[in-house]
Amino acid sequence: MNCAERLVEMFGSQAEVARAFQLDRAVVHHWVKTGYVPVRWAGEVERVTQGRISAVDIIHEASAKNPVRVKSRPDDAPFGIPPEDPAMTQYAPAKRITSFHPPQRTLMGPGPTEIHPRVLTTMSQPAIGYLDPVFVEMMEELKSLLRYVYQTKNPLTFPLSGPGSVGMEFCFVNMVAPGDKVVVCQNGVFGGRMLENVVRCGGTPIVVEDKWGDPVDPQKVEDALKKNKGASVLAFVHAETSTGAQSDAKELTRIAHKHGALVIVDAVTSLAGTPVRVDDWEIDAIYSASQKCLSCTPGLSPVSFSERVVEHVRHRKDKIHSWFMDMNLLLGYWNAGARTYHHTAPTNSLFALHEALLLIREEGLENCWARHQRHHVALKAGLEAMGLKFLVKEEYQLPQMNAVLCPEGVDEAQVRSRLLSEFGLEIGAGLGPLKGKIWRFGLMGYSCRPDNVMLCLSALGSVLDDMGYPVHVGDAESAAHGAYAQMHAKDAQRKKRAA
Ligand SMILES: Cc1ncc(COP(=O)(O)O)c(C=O)c1O
Questions:
Q1: Which part of the chain is CATH 3.90.1150.10?
Q2: pTM over cut 0.85
Q3: CATH topology of domain 365-498
Q4: Are 391 and 244 in contact (CB under 8 A)?
Q5: Considering only CA atoms, which of 106, 115, 109, 110 is closest in space to residue 421?
Q6: Ligand 1 pocket, 194 CB below 6 A?
Q7: Pseudo-torsion of CA 379, 380, 384, 388, nearest 10°?
Q8: Is the CB of 267 under 6 A from ligand 1?
Q9: pLDDT for position 69
Q10: Which residue among 7, 81, 318, 453 is the one 20 to 30 A from 411 at the CA level?
C-alpha cells in the first residue's frame, strides 16, 4: 500500500484526509491517482499522522515515482558553440554547482518561520503576468484578506514588494516632510530604525527612550507631545522583536490623537500573533512583514493607511522623496479600476501570501491569537522549569517572541550553534546591547505548534545538560505538558458551562 492509500485508510476517506490537511479534495484524489504524496508534504504528513507515516517514507516514495530529471546543461552544444569556452570558465567556481536543496529546519527564531506546505505548493504554481485578469482578481481578494488580519476597512491596504523595512520606509517617506516634528519611541533595535527614517526624510526627531525589555511608557509620550506642540507624527513599534516586549498601541494612539498627531505603528512581529485592531484603535498608518506570524515567504510588506493619511499625503505640496514608494504612483497599480504598470510585482510570492492569509481566515483570527498564547504558556512553563528567566515582565511579554536571559557562564553562541547542527533547530540571538546575553525563541505562525515547543525544550535541555549546566530535561517537558493539561481542562470547563 502506498502512502496516499495509507492516509485514506487511516482517516477513513479522501474527504477526511482533505479535511485533516486543510486541502481541496481534488488534491488528495490526485495523490491517490498518481500513487504518491509530493515531497513538500513530507513534514506535514509526519506531523498530522503523529509519526505513523514518516517524512522519510514520503520522500523515498515520491523520489522513486517522480525523480527529478531536469538537467542543468544540455548534452549538445547548440549551434556549434563549444560546450565550454576556456576563457569563460575562469568565472566559474572550481566545484561544479548543483541544484540547491535547503535542509529541513525547525525555525524558532525571530523570523523567517516555517511555511505551511499549502503555501509552498501555491507558490510553485506557473507564473502569470502581473496584469493578467486572473491575477488582478486575486489581488482584490488579497487586499480583503489583509483587511481581515488588520481588522480594518481602510481601502488603502495592500502588500508592498519588499521586506518589512520597505513598509517602514513607505510610511515615513509618505508621511514625513522636511521640517516635520516626529516623536519616535525607542525601546529596542527597530525604534532606532524608525529614528533613522525620520532623519533621512528631513524630519526633526524627538526621541522618547525606554529601557530595552520595557514597553513604551505612555506617560513619557504624553510629556513629549505636550512639550513639542505641533508634532505631526508619533512612531512606535507595537511588538519589539529585539526584546520580546509589547507596547499598548491603543493607548499610545489615543494620546497621539489627543495632541493632534498621526501614528505610524510597526506591526511586523505583532500582526496575526497578538491582537491588532486598526479600526477600533484608530491607527493611522501601519506596516508588517510576510515572514513573521503570517508565515509566508519573506519579501512582502502589508501596509494600511487610514483615509485621513491618504488625504494628508495627497495634499502634500512637495514631491515625495522616493519614486518607488510614492503612495500616489503605487495606487495606480494596487487600486481597483484601471491598473497601470508601476513595477513588476512578485507574482508567485503574492500567490503565496494569498494562501497564507487564507489559512488564517480558515483558522479564524481569534483562534490564531489564542494558539500563539497557548503555546507561549507551555514553552514558558518549560523554560522556567529549566531555571531560565524572561527578559520582559510577564504583563508585557509577547507570546510569539520569548526572550530569555542566557545563564552566567554558558556560551550563548555555542548553544545556538549546537541546536542547529545537532537538532536542526534555529533560535535567535540577542541584538545590540543584548548581544551574547539573551536567546530569542520565536513561536510565530506555522512554527507555533506543540511539536516545536516540545522539541525546543528537549533539545535545549539536552545541549545545556551536555555543556555542564544543571538542568533536568524531564522537568521542563513535564512543566510544558502540565501547562497544556491545565489549559485543556479550563477549555473543557468553559465549553461545559457554555453548553
Ligand atoms: C519590529 C520589526 N520591524 C521591522 C523589521 C524589518 O523587517 P525586514 O527584516 O522584513 O525588513 C523587523 C525585522 O525583524 C522587525 O522585527
A1: 365-498
A2: yes
A3: Aspartate Aminotransferase, domain 1 (3.90.1150)
A4: yes
A5: 106
A6: no
A7: 90
A8: no
A9: 61
A10: 453
Q: What would the grid cell of residue 23 be?
A: 486541502
Cell of 386: 529549566
State whether the beta carbon of 266 lies less than 6 angstroms from ligand 1. yes
Residues of the chain with confidence (pLDDT) below 50: none
pLDDT of residue 214: 98
Q: pLDDT by residue (tens digit) across 153-180?
A: 999 999 999 999 999 999 999 999 999 9
What topology does CATH give the domain 1-69? 434 Repressor (Amino-terminal Domain) (1.10.260)
Q: What is the C-alpha end-to-end distance of the chain, expressed in Å?
A: 43
C-beta of 242 in contact with ligand 1 (< 6 A): no
192 lines ligand 1 (CB under 6 A): no
Phi, psi angle pair for 463, to nearest 5°: -65, -45
Pocket test for ligand 1, best of 197, 246, 269 (most atoms within 8 A of CB): 269
For the domain made up of 117-361, give the CATH fold: Aspartate Aminotransferase; domain 2 (3.40.640)
* Sequence-ordered list of residues with C-beta below 8 angstroms from that of 7, at least 6 positions apart, any chain: 17, 28, 31, 37, 45, 49, 53
Three cell numbers written together for 345: 510585482
Identify whether 67 is preceded by a cis peptide bond (ω within 30 of 0): no
